[in-house]
Amino acid sequence: ARVRHYKFNVVMKNVTRLCSSKPIVTVNGEFPGPTLYAREDDTVIVKVVNHVKYNVSIHWHGIRQLRTGWSDGPAYITQCPLQTGQTFSYNFTLTGQRGTLLWHAHILWLRATLHGGIVILPKLGVPYPFPKPHEELVLVLGEWWKSDTEAVINEALKSGLAPNVSDAHTINGHAGPVPSCPSSQARRLSVDGGKTYLLRIINAALNDELFFKIAGHNMTVVEVDATYVKPLETETIVISPGQTTNALVTAGRSTGKYLITASPFMDTLAVAVDNVTATATLHYSGTLASSVTALAVPPPRNATSVADRFTDSLRSLNSKVYPAKVPRGAVDHSLLFTVGLGINPCPTCKAGNGSRAVAAINNVTFVMPTVALLQAHFFNISGVFTEDFPGNPPTVFNYTASPTTGLATTNGTKVYRLAYNATVQLVLQDTGIIVPENHPIHLHGFNFFVVGRGIGNYDAKNDPKRFNLVDPVERNTVGVPSGGWTAIRFRADNPGVWFMHCHLEVHTTWGLKMAFLVDDGKGPNESLLPPPADLPRC
Length: 538
Ligand code: C2O
Prior knowledge:
Largest sheet: 6 strands, mixed
Number of strands: 33
Number of domains: 3
Bound molecules: CU-O-CU linkage
Low-confidence stretches: none
CATH superfamily of the largest domain: Cupredoxins -  blue copper proteins
CATH topology of the largest domain: Immunoglobulin-like
Helix content: under 10%
Shape: globular
Strand content: 35-45%
């Protein structure tokens, strides 16, 4: 194993997209940011220097951070952010993981432009469990906002209303020609006929789940969230913010140009979404300039059946070499968390008529602390958080019917405590309060197995009988269906404080977040390591 050093200078950069320019926060002046490359078992040290006016922290989304929670990155959860002029070296080892992940800013809405890919190759000499591709291509999907994203969210918080949506989706930072800017450049993926390519697809968007398609080409999904899956052939990939998908595509033609699209998936028509599809082209070598591009028709934004078919078909590879280590039998903690929106009073919110949109888990709207939770835990600083996060909804009601009461939520900085190595089953139930909506929930510090999923109210008696405990897909971010539920299982084998939240940034901002506190184990390698000397303290 090697040590890989990276230097991230966080700097402003003027960038032109959609026919207009604005200064954006970048790493090393690049948008999207640089891709980190390493191998399984390597140690990665990223020296981050903050040269911008904002406080910054960087999260390595999906990296387990075994015992190194200090390098996880969410501001005020595992560290205080780097202030202007500060430096911090994130230092972590890639234990038992290989595949595609992403890094992104984990403070304010800075991840709109502060993000990039992470590629973890298998250990030297270890092959992929699928045919070796001719070439590998990283595709970062995102959103472009003509206005300043910090202004967008600040405006929304003041009014109490939902923020504006982005102006176009992007593929590797570019939207392709769109009505508001026909001269916008599309990225070109150059391929040779007869060769197979591995696409490492990352959804780095703030607020939109996406459909991904290539005209005239099926894809074979071989990995999601840096875990191998049984090969799944599909026309359309569904990918939520924070998720990653590796797919093989064979250039099975001899020449031609084929449109690639990234378009929104939002099953609730009541929620506004950026409807501008990003395009790129799959371009065969030897194609005449005059040749016409074959079009891809993206699914409608509310094509829930397309999304469901894809999601329900994913299975862990569960091979001899890569077994699915699903916690089986009775679990130590059986939790039910409702996720959804609410409305709280806000006397100053004029546009919102004296109330503001909020979001909650089990009716708790999480309030960010001013001292990082991990620091408070490690140094026994009292008064920062309480340990009374409810393991079950405080009031039982029909989650999918229209609500009568109970729109207001409780504010608090509450965590749920787990013993080292405890097994957890967590059912995430979407509520129809305000509006049912698909929420991609991300858990830091762990991979989990998605053992079940259904529409309507979770039935604790009958639904578990149908759980897949053999080869469920293993991920770090999972969509909770609109007006439905998703059940996950994981083992609390990583001591520290671990954030869990909706990866739609607007919902995180509104409070759809909480944290698990996992105690140290008794064994020699079962405790949280001490904080690095240069960790920014609060
Ligand atoms: Cu990708 Cu807590 O985030």
